[in-house]
Hints:
The protein is of the alpha/beta class. The protein is built from five helices and eight strands; from the N terminus they run E-H-E-E-E-H-E-E-H-H-H-E-E. A six-stranded mixed β-sheet has the order 1-6-5-2-3-4, with helices on both faces. A two-stranded antiparallel ribbon has the order 7-8. The longest helix is centred in the N-terminal third of the chain and has 14 residues.
Amino acid sequence: MGTSIENQPDVANNRTEFRHWEIDLVLFKKTKNETLLLTLVERQTRYTIIRKMNGKTAQCVLRTLKNIFKQYVKLIFKSITSDNGSEFASLSELESTYLSIYYAHPYSSYERGTNENHNGQIREFLPKGKSINTVKKSTIRKIESCLNHKIRRKLGYRAPAELFLLRVDRLIKTGFPSRHTLFFDLTRKPWFLLFGY
């Protein structure tokens, strides 16, 4: 299924390049029709995107990712690494000149350690075993914001949101495609990127 993580470039592995992401699903209760979370973490900045999903199918994942791409321009994503669960089987449909998809080895969650760590932090707010069906999207946004504005020692005592914005700004200054117009919504945190096509 897709390209192995063994072929992932060194710049992604050692975090020297921006735009390489890890993806996962966070389940809370193993009951039918249970809501879950899709999480994305950018490896260099640790910037996190969290979205609620109403199903664990490959099509639900694709639909959620496409909605994210509309908000954060697709070119912010140079690669995405997932586990090899069936819910991620259709990610290869998103591969293009700009985006590569990599799959970790079976039973090797440590290969996506950044994402696994952040999922653990999410569980501090939303414990395992508790349904999130009634949790509002605004609550999910607040959790996302909290993670993205948390000062990290590994980031030189900076927050992921700060570094993410700096990297995006650098991309624009170094020739990010001019057809994408960048707007910052400073009225809420994290500062979402809205791109016009």
